[in-house]
Sequence to fold (147 residues):
Amino acid sequence: MTRTRTPVVADWFTGEGEEFRLLGTRCAACSAVFFPREDGFCRNPGCGGGELVEVPLSRRGRVWSYTDGRYRPPLPYVSDPDVAWEPYTLLAVELEAERMVVLGQAPPGVTAADVEVGMEVEVVPGVLNEDAETVWTTWHFRPVSAR
Ligand SMILES: [Zn+2]
Fold:
């Protein structure tokens, strides 16, 4: 049986491989960029409000900060207590053009010891979770040096 690949959140990213990009929105009036996307109203208090247009964000950025998740988070976070907790590395990345900081996990196998502040990373497709029918997709930030 082929499992469907479903984004864990709709319309936050698009594309495959080299074309994979995060999606934000940009205010047509003041050029402010939002991620997660803002589709309701421009949140810039100095802006009278403009049309919010979907824009792909920079593929690359630099590590602004990072940490590792070694412990299972408490409820209401959903995790199976019968499955061993897999530590993961969480990166805060300043995107190249937008200069905004976006959170994302590093791919499996990239540990906090492999990362340093200022390191160049790129956004790549990733898998958040899998069950019998569905592969839940997300984004990862991978060190460019690890290509
Ligand atoms: Zn605006």
